[in-house]
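forwarding from the other thread:

> can someone predict this with 2-phosphoglycolic acid?

sure thing
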Amino acid sequence: MKKNKSLIVANWKQNGDLKSLTKLVNNFIKLYKKVKPRCDVLLLPPTLYLNLILSRLRYYRISLRKISLGVQNISPFLNGAYTGEQSVDMIKDYKCSFSLIGHSERRHILLEDEKMIASKVKLSLQANLNTILCVGETLKEYNQKLTKKVISRQLRSALSKNTHLFKSDHSKVIIAYEPVWAIGTGKAAISEDITEVHSYIRQVLCKMLGSKSNSIRILYGGSVNDVNAKSILNLPDVDGALVGGASLNSKKFIDICSSI
Ligand code: PGA
């Protein structure tokens, strides 16, 4: 099967400040203009700095189709009295076209349950955002050989009630496979495991949604860096990467983007 166009995502998490993120985005854009990577690139800055990143992209005349903007999280509610939350409409004011939902740090540290994740997926798709759903097993689940069971449950609980929202365009949904034990540890999953899990995700999606689901991109995340990116991105059914730590270094991140 022909691969989907690769998407490389920078997840900056809760890192940086006005000064350092301005420097990071300026440096990255300059490198991007030189290298012109073939993949789609998505930046997920801390929400507070969306306007800053948007203004830098505009200053350098970068099309938002080339480097897109998105958020690391959305409110599970449309609007109203929800202290501290940002609605899908608010983030769309800053030209965000992507949301990231169900990241393991939100599942395991901020204790988001599957019901909440499904609500966020619903709102994100209703708002016509490209929706990246993160799935992945913990180390304990990996050792107990529960990876497939966990992933199937996470996919079904987040997507099964929302399929009518992307039936006309399956590419609005993107899956990121991120083994929890590989995130931020410097220990990426081995190629055999990535291949097996991505192929399994493809099968589950096909069972749920039919062959049109082949246009759903499946990204790998967890300690992707400038050294291992090429071999990971070349694996079958790997349509891109979700990059944390290494995306905070403009040179490393552009090297990852250009390894496709
Ligand atoms: P990492 O993070 O690249 O630092 O492992 C990936 C992620 O959490 O999305």
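The chain has a mean pLDDT of 97. thats all i got for now
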